[in-house]
Amino acid sequence: MKATAYSINVDEKEHLVRSNAKTHDLTLISNALNASTLPYCAGKTVIIISGTDVLDKSLLISLKQMGVKNVITRSKSTAHIDLASAAELGIKVANNPSNDQSIENTAKQTIHNLDLWEAGRCVGRACCCHDCISTNKHNTEEI
């Protein structure tokens, strides 16, 4: 999958690159996601964000218009994402549901989510989509 990861620090970069093992086309940038950094996700179907990147409805609409179909947050919380608007727009959202929020585990979970989406599967407990949350339809575990 083609993805842009925003708000990446040096330690995260090393773990994401190692976990990815050249499987997915990742663009890793240190900039936060906002209206002025949207061009970095041009041609990508996935964005990877941190817990400090806020996705409100207007930003989600812009992402959808650019072709983004999936969002992964590297945090357990999704409070920084307008999940209702993401659902309305058909954008799938995943998180790192593990209690282990270490940089290494988060990188592994992020790549695991990409692998499952690329295979056309639900990301299980990491899925934050309205349908999965409301029906408790989590058919895979986090790593």
TrEMBL record:
<dbReference type="InterPro" id="IPR006139">
    <property type="entry name" value="D-isomer_2_OHA_DH_cat_dom"/>
</dbReference>
<dbReference type="Pfam" id="PF00389">
    <property type="entry name" value="2-Hacid_dh"/>
</dbReference>
<protein>
    <submittedName>
        <fullName>Lactate dehydrogenase</fullName>
    </submittedName>
</protein>
<keyword id="KW-0520">NAD</keyword>
<feature type="domain" description="D-isomer specific 2-hydroxyacid dehydrogenase catalytic">
    <location>
        <begin position="22"/>
        <end position="98"/>
    </location>
</feature>
<dbReference type="InterPro" id="IPR058205">
    <property type="entry name" value="D-LDH-like"/>
</dbReference>
